[in-house]
Records
---
Amino acid sequence: MHLLIIEDNKTLAEALSLHFRDGGHSVTLTTDGEQGLQFLCQESFDCCLLDINLPYLSGLSVVRSARQSGIQTPVLMLTARDQITDRVTGLDAGADDYLTKPFDFTELDARVRALLRRTPNLQNKTDIIGQLEVHHEGQYISANNENLLLTAKEFQAFKAMFHNRNQLVAKANLIDQIYGVGADINDATVEVLISRLRTKIAPHGVTVKTVRGLGYYLQVDEA
């Protein structure tokens, strides 16, 4: 599962990111509404966790603008506002569910699962790139009906590039998505990870290309 978290409380944002990454999921994290809306409109996510009180653009404005642009990503609003009128306003703006702070992570997980059940086309979606089949629900990749033996971090690296396959993924962004924001990871660790991933997927028509000093992207090999 690929989640977008838009939350300006950095402690909570990092806790959410760590929670879902520990569960084997890919996470994109931002702390302001304006950038969050850009992510939501430009990338493919299975679910978005969205705070209401955000800098630059409120959560209500984010979800309202996304829906007006035709974005159907399930949105779970996270907020300290617990009045019925606040919940109604959020749902009317386009949110799919509403969870008040503080909350229990088990309830959060249950609500995310419920949102995905309502959108089986997202939960059960399988994409194809080259000769590879990307199984989003099961968090694995197969080729010729055989699973590729990827580690969790190799799969996260692949998904980060796959979800941004029309553009370069900066090395810093890749580190954030795989290891968490602020993780003390050196370049050599990432390069070894990418090298292993490249070796495993190259026989199946997909290459990880390196732009030295900038980042990586996926390229489908010509037949």
---
Amino acid sequence: MSYTIEQQRSHIRELQAMLHGISYYNPSIPRVIPDGIYGKTTADAVRAFQQYYGLRQTGEADPSTWEKIAEVYRDLIETVPEPLDAFPNVPTAQILSGDRGFTVLVIQSILHELSQEYGDIPDCPLSGVFDADTIRSLQPFQKLSGLTPTNAVDCKTWNMLASAANGGLLHR
């Protein structure tokens, strides 16, 4: 049975996906987008991997390189879960109306889940934008948590949200 072009592209995508994942942990490995094409970017990433891990630098994914990439990738993803610091590490930081991004999405996700448990907290749509719906959900949470309701998530509110997400109880 012959090796089809689609099978080849699938294997290249698998290699690229592992290199992509490794690049988050090791910045000396260039980030590649898994597209199934073994071009210059993939060859450069393989060569950088080979250099870092003491393999012969060919830029080709020979069997020993493939096995080492798979081993490193497995070791990275099968370890203890990485902590995720979503809130800025500054006591005076605030997330305000109009802010957008991952941290806002985390806040909205927590508020959404809490709205399912507490009728006093309106549902919070997941948009990634700190908007009026987010504030409508946030203020009752702050009040239930013993905080002064505001239009912002500061360190105190973040800590209460994180505690609630980690299973802490809100007091009524």
---
Amino acid sequence: MTIRHPEKIKKPINPLKKKPNWIKSKLTNSQEFFLTKTIVNQYNLKTVCQEANCPNITECWNKKHATFLIMGDTCTRACAFCDIITGKPKSLDPLEPQKISSAIKKLNLKHAVITSVDRDDLFDGGAKHFYEVIIETRKNNPNTSIEVLTPDFLRKGDSYKKVIEAKPDVFNHNIETVPSLYRKVRPGSRYFASLELLKNVKKINKNIFTKSGLMVGLGENNDEILQVMDDLKSADVDFLTIGQYLQPSTKHHPLNRYYRPEEFVELNNIARSKGFLLVSSSPLTRSSYHADDDFAKLQSNRISQTNAKSIS
């Protein structure tokens, strides 16, 4: 019997599929784009826009919208869909809360989105660091609404409650895909643990908007998508985003197919019929895409919903 060393076993090569014309993003640079880049570099910050090769970076940075990536650029997990590097992260930067806060002020953001890599190496998964970033940001930017996109804090007990204690305006945690694909796509995560996290956020503070995102095109079927919608609605999630999975390289999970624009419209209509406060569904929809405008819609929809209940 021949023993093959793991490092000598070639990983499967998953060919990239040509993008259809409706999936291509605009590549236009502007003065605002370079201003955003300059401010990000000035404070030596990381953004998920860059690290995850987001297709919307040009459009968002032209509006001076950047999604800040805290706790480094190295993730402790290896999700098969993600382009962020995996490895042993560096220690936390104690000055990062101040840097993030200053950058947000300089960009004059009315809505700030803050996310992170998974930090399973930390005793609390980075919850305290999230807390400090939120508190510092709010102190120096009192008129800026704050949205966080967090890890699942798996096996970290109640550490996630520290993030809720800081009272972000939006608490986002992406479910990403359907349960049957978790072992291949999100091997370090657990579907029902993610649902429980979202449910608990709303239980603890009903005033915080909860949000989750789903990618399509990984190999799921329609019934599975509908089940995820039902599960998220049962967890009292307010806002659902649905976007097209774009395979980053031949080493990542293979793209099953591209959904057509009209299919995203159909998914949008179905999700809205299930009672979500807001739904964003399109090929290029991502967690923080148009997040500032969507936050305003969430507020407006909540007021309309409350008024409708009081009348009835």
---
Amino acid sequence: MFTLNSADLELMAAMFLFPLARILAWLATDPLLGNRAVPVSIRIAAGVVLTMAVAPILPPIPQVALVSAQGLMTLLQQMAIGMALGYSMRILFAGIEFAGSIMGLQMGLSMATLYDPVNGAQTPVISQMVTVTATLILFAMNGHHLVITALAQSFADIPIGATLTGAGFAMLAHWGGSLFSIGLQIALPVTAALITTNLSIGMMTRAAPQLNIFAVGFPLTLSAGFIVLYLSLIYLPATLDRAWGLALSSGIKAMSGMVGR
């Protein structure tokens, strides 16, 4: 007769709860599938489905009492590992938003803001447009599939129950330093074109002092900015592909660093 004791039930619960904690922590910080615009119930359901798909292929889990100090530490460790991957992706999106802010400032649209329900704050319209465009491109490039694959592979490379270290946090901080370089790479075509436009307007004003700079300068910079932004969108997928790969590798290194690997 098949019987289950309390130890078997606790092990079965651990095989589900610990992976679920890692996956939900990733969904709470991931900018694509974990976007705040997605209802919480949908995110929780997605986490449960992914956990049920990953649980059969998990390596052996150490027998840890769930209601204990060791069980709590293991749970916090899984949350830290999942958040490391999510934050590495979110840093990339922060760089994209930074690029949109730079372009909006140069185009004279820094005061044109809309309420962003995702971030819960006022965001420049150009920044929102670039962020939404980048999100659609990453979905079209199956970027979310790559992140899910890396998360599933992390259970084999970083088994549950390993010792937590602080090296992964340092790796995340180092990757965060790339935020400005990513933003400048995306905003460089528009910024360079607008600097050239402003220099041309300055020389025109110097040559013809009677020229009304306020009546001519703003339409020119706005038109030049939108034209160059439209023309540079063709190069955005390649830039995002390279940056997404860097963010994914940084997230994997950060997760491995959490356990000193």
